[in-house]
């Protein structure tokens, strides 16, 4: 079993000019025929324009394979989770910096309770509480929509 775009062990690599059993493409020189090492008139931009094989890897006669749209993997759950973890870590680092920079003590009163809390921590607690309220409201709405969809399916079956 082979993984990736590699040929099975012992098999030649498939590609333009390098077919199994067929002749391989002639090798090309890495520089134009009129190039001399002590020539200072040619710049690297001039060499790239004068050489059609400028994008070829040194010592090969075939161009490097270019990935096509079909070769690119699609979005996977693992990739989405990885991106979410990276975004969460960046957000957490920014949050830690915010809390550390806002260490001034503030008086907080809530339903008769009173205390001193660092400003950054008070704002963090307030934002988390707001997020929990939004999540509860969103969850209730999702449950309501599911219940309505379930009832509609039951009515269609009758």
Give the helix/strand class. Answer: mainly alpha
Order of helices and strands: HHEEH
Given the C-alpha coordinates, what overall shape results? flat
Number of helices: 3
For the terminal residues, how far apart are their CA atoms?
A: 51 Å
Helix content: 40-55%
- Major sheet size, sense and barrel closure: 2 strands, antiparallel
Sheet with the most strands: spatial strand order: 1-2
Low-confidence stretches: none
Mean pLDDT: 75
Taking Cα atoms only, what radius of gyration do you get, to the nearest Å?
32 Å
What is the number of beta strands?
A: 2
Strand content: 5-15%
What does this structure look like?
The protein has three helices and two strands, in the order H-H-E-E-H. 45% of the residues lie in helices and 8% in strands. By secondary structure, the chain is mostly helical. It starts with 43 loop residues before the first helix and ends with a helix.
Topology:
Blueprint: H1 44-50, H2 77-101, E1 105-110, E2 113-118, H3 119-157
Antiparallel strand pairs: 1-2
Question: Would you kindly provide a brief summary of this structure?
Answer:
This protein is mainly α and 158 residues long. The protein is built from 3 helices and 2 strands; from the N terminus they run ααββα.
Observed structural traits:
two-stranded antiparallel sheet; single chain; 158 residues; 45% helix; mainly alpha; flat
